[in-house]
Amino acid sequence: MFSINPFSSSFFQLYILQLDEYDIFRYLGKILKVKRGNKQIKPLVWTNKAKIIYSLSLLQILLLSFLIANFNLLVFSIVLFFGLQLFFIPLTLSIIVFYPADYISKKIIISRAKAKISNLKDLKIIAIAGSYGKTTFKEILFTILSEKYRVLKTPESINTPLGISRLILSTLSDDYDIFIVEMGEYYKGDIKKLCKITIPDISVVTGINEAHFERLKALDTTVSTIFEVVENSKENASIVLNIADKLVRENYKKYTDNKEIIFYGDDIKTGLFTTDIKFNTDNLTLDFRLYEDKSFIDSFSIPLLAKYVIDDIIGAVQIALKLGISWPFIKQGIRKIKSIPHRLEPKFDKSKNTIYIDDTYNANPQGVKEAIEVLANFKNRRKIYITPGMAETGKANRKIHLEIAEYLSKVADLVVLVDTSSSRFINEGLRKNNFPDDKIKIYNHQQDVYDDLNHWTKSGDVVLFQNIWPENYV
Hints:
Elements: H1 6-19, H2 24-30, H3 48-69, H4 73-85, H5 88-118, E1 124-129, H6 134-145, E2 151-153, H7 161-170, E3 178-182, H8 190-197, E4 202-205, H9 213-216, H10 219-226, H11 228-231, E5 238-242, H12 246-251, E6 260-264, E7 272-280, E8 285-292, E9 295-302, H13 308-322, H14 327-335, E10 345-349, E11 354-359, H15 365-376, E12 382-387, H16 397-409, E13 414-418, H17 423-432, E14 440-443, H18 446-456, E15 461-466
Parallel strand pairs: 1-3, 1-4, 2-3, 4-5, 5-6, 11-15, 12-13, 12-15, 13-14
Antiparallel strand pairs: 7-8, 8-9, 10-11
Helix pairs in contact: 1-4, 3-4, 3-5, 5-7, 6-13, 6-14, 15-16, 16-17
């Protein structure tokens, strides 16, 4: 956390606060334990809030330094130096002072967004919730629906009330027919709050697992939180459910009374299914044939690696058909699907004959297992797996990572771990499964792995980067 350059230290502490979304309780519980590498994984974003908080905090340090120094420049410099090193203290005070104004500002923005969206009478809102798979489903759905309609989607990881409200105020207008909203959850009630802003006409549940277990605490809480997207949809809303997910299958009847239910999943019972699914390791595509009932629709080849995207495509097609899009437009949309940044995104370095797979935004148990299965498909390449493990798995942390290690031990030729509270359980699990010690590398910080990558990769490798461990986790 500390640095010879005191201003660098103060910026880093603000950066950690920003990663923790200005939650001072989480922040204070970990700030003295965070690791700092030579480079930050993400940049500090100088939002208006960040500028105000930093300015208030710096002002506190300057005033304290001035009062203690009593015009002694040396004492002033010493107090300033240590004040900047312990910048988390004035940052905390600044958050407390700024809270009332920040709270009122958020309420005004959210209220304005609600008012604006309520006037867009013809707008269809599609809400996507789930422990995993939300972004992939959103991107695929957006691509297909855009063949006929004008569609706005929440970008990247904007999935909070404030972020979505700002998007509504800045971008959404009556030029759009459909608004696709990805809904994030950390605590019970989070999705309900989002549904009050964007009441869904169509609600999608992609799947449920132990993601964000640290804060949600129990699977029952996770299930009820995810299904808030169903309970808080419009009375005549359509509910689109991933029937391939066990927890969705077991729980949906409790939440879907009097709603139209549309199932998806690569299952003939849903009306849409695929055959001849093949992963092409040469051109890095997934090939398949799509059927509706017993009618052959067409063959497709898409630049995505994991078989689970087949289910997402079927779910998106179900929605497209519901919205009156004909098969010629749907087929065009499927063919336009692209790889999704940081989610099993393949890159082939021809000069080194090395394949890099970027799955750094995938941080849930189901997704990790799918990624390892993708790695297993490369029969004639040395398979390298790089990970810090998963954060926010709570009391399930050890169990989940021991299971990952068991999968890995049967697939990987080399495992590179970033030393974290989670990766230590992967290391333990690998050794329990007799994975060779000399095939395990451990680094102190994620950036150190990237800096050293060229020293141990070689021609013919396939390298999978699984997850990023932000500095605000320990």
